[in-house]
Specification:
Elements: E1 11-16, H1 22-29, E2 34-35, E3 45-46, E4 56-57, E5 65-70, E6 73-79, E7 94-100, H2 105-118, E8 121-124, E9 129-130, E10 139-144, H3 150-158, E11 165-167, E12 175-180, E13 186-193, E14 212-219, H4 231-255, E15 258-261, E16 266-267, H5 269-272
Antiparallel strand pairs: 1-7, 1-8, 2-5, 3-4, 5-6, 6-7, 8-9, 10-14, 10-15, 11-12, 12-13, 13-14, 15-16
Helix pairs in contact: 3-4
Length: 274
């Protein structure tokens, strides 16, 4: 049963590594998110998980509080692992209970995006645990203030993938580059001009991003097109994810801007490093 169907179990908790800055993740989707209870500040903690690169989180609440996401929904926490009511994977020490009067499709999508981003898990009202793979969706988008010519982008891309080549682009794209991998399909770099930008960018200085979007996507082929939970699929994604990250880092060197992942969260330059 899909989560948005009548009778589907409501999500009741999200579990993340200890010290995860859930408020920052909330504001990436819900700009008005705020702590409204349990706001006594504790010491800053180091973010846990490869996706965060060991960065330092702002001071978090000392004990459980209410993180208001919308007028009708919020999270209560951080609580200990036992609050989830089900066994959790090692390392998931912070549990936030969902407080919502009804199912919210956007909140559900955010919970899964957070779990994917942090290596966490979502627990539904029936005790089901979903732990989406971080590499389930492969793709990054660089939002830059300037559009560089195709030949400049190609030169940067070739510093990472020497066989990158220009290809025909659809009318919605300014240009498109493609790299055919030996086994895993094709990686595309496409430049478009966006009128709608991710919410997370609105919290940044205007010069830190722009409407020129360099989308890095993967088109798997053959065995690599299998679902990510297959051995072949996981191996392919394990090769493609760092390649896409290196391409994004190379392009940002000439375009500036900010990289956003498929979950709508900012990816820092440190995270793009091999």
């Amino acid at each position: 049963m899909e989560d948005d169907e009548p009778g589907a179990p409501l999500d009741r908790a999200v579990a993340v590594p200890s010290g995860t800055d859930v408020l920052a993740l909330a504001r990436a989707w819900f700009p008005e998110a705020e702590h409204i209870a349990g706001s006594r500040a504790g010491p800053a903690r180091r973010l846990v998980g490869a996706r965060f690169g060991g960065g330092v989180a702002p001071a978090r609440s000392d004990g459980p509080g209410l993180l208001r996401m919308t007028a009708d929904a919020g999270l209560r926490g951080p609580l200990g692992p036992s609050a989830a009511g089900v066994p959790l994977a090692a390392g998931l020490e912070d549990v936030y209970l969902v407080e919502a009067s009804a199912g919210d499709a956007v909140l559900t999508s955010w919970l899964l995006a957070v779990a994917r981003r942090t290596g966490g898990a979502v627990v539904d009202g029936r005790g089901g645990v979903r732990a989406p793979a971080a590499a389930e969706f492969v793709g990054l988008t660089l939002y830059a203030p300037d559009a560089v010519p195709a030949e400049v982008a190609l030169a940067q891309a070739r510093s990472v993938a020497p066989m990158m080549r220009p290809v025909a682009a659809p009318p919605t794209e300014t240009y498109r580059l493609a790299f055919d991998t030996p086994y895993d399909g094709t990686v595309l770099v496409s430049l478009t001009t966006r009128t709608q930008l991710p919410v997370v960018l609105m919290s940044l200085a205007p010069e830190a991003y722009g409407r020129y979007a360099y989308a890095l996507t993967w088109v798997p082929s053959g065995p690599a097109a299998e679902a990510c939970d297959t051995v072949v699929g996981r191996l392919a994604r394990g090769r493609i994810v760092p390649l896409v990250a290196r391409l994004a880092a190379a392009l940002s060197g000439v375009t500036g801007g900010t990289v956003v992942d498929t979950g709508g969260f900012v990816v820092t330059p440190e995270e793009l490093r091999p």
